[in-house]
User: Which sequence fits this backbone?
């Protein structure tokens, strides 16, 4: 069941993030900072929303999204992370769908996901295009030589 | 002369920013937050550098830039603002050139400037392409309906 994340999810999110294999150390640090800001200020003032896929005590993935600064009606998909033990169960798809639905209710006209072509993100283009996103912009070598940024966009 | 900004420049930067006609209220707020962080933490820890074009007590423009999170050797050009009374004197060009030179010295292999197609930014494409930047990515309607984001990139 997809529900709002709560403070008690802190260790689960850190555990899933570090085991996911998609977040490097810098990204884990940034996730920690975003999570702290979310807990401290709440979704409205932090600008971050966290949803988890929870069954009983178990969390199989989480998504973080929120309005993009300086835009009118654009929401960023900041993180979408699935427990490696829960792959191939549509957890990512359901989390994304929930984030889209909540964003639309909050007035989003567009969702944006900045992704990398690094090997650890293999399959992400397929995932996003199946979900109705389009790769709309690309900056070659942005993250590092050989690691482009690809921006996926879905318009509602 | 282009030199590092100091705390005493606070009122000048706010004055130039508000009279520039290019920064809206949200962007002025964000500039204020960035400037506070720069003063509080210093360039290293804040990740922001500010340079001003100063003649005597007078400042005719400023530039803010710094390393982009999650990238290796990419610097963002965050702000480049010229006093409307000092236009057509190459202030912007000199500030940009100084920011590029300092970034290269700090290891930049690329500089990135996210800009808007809003009317108040008219002429920016001409300015950046003359400075050797290329429009490398565009997201339609990102800032608002009819206001695209255009990302200019210069590789060193």
Assistant:
């Amino acid at each position: 069941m997809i529900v709002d994340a709560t403070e008690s999810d802190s260790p689960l999110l850190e555990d899933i993030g570090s085991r996911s294999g998609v977040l490097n150390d810098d990204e884990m640090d940034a996730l920690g900072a975003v999570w702290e800001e979310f807990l401290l200020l709440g979704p409205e003032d932090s600008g971050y929303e966290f949803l988890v896929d929870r069954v009983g005590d178990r969390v199989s993935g989480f998504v973080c999204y929120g309005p993009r600064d300086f835009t009118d009606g654009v929401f960023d998909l900041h993180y979408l992370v699935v427990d490696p033990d829960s792959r191939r169960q549509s957890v990512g798809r359901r989390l994304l769908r929930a984030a889209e639905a909540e964003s639309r209710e909050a007035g989003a006209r567009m969702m944006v996901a900045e992704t990398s072509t690094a090997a650890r993100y293999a399959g992400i283009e397929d995932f996003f295009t199946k979900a109705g996103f389009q790769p709309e912009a690309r900056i070659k070598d942005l993250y590092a030589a050989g690691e482009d940024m690809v921006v996926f966009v879905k318009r509602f």
Observations:
- The interface with chain A takes residues 26-27, 30, 68-74, 109-110, 112, 136-145, 151, 153 of chain B (CB under 8 Å).
- Residues 82 and 90 of chain B are 9 Å apart (CA to CA).
- Chain B has one domain: 2-111.
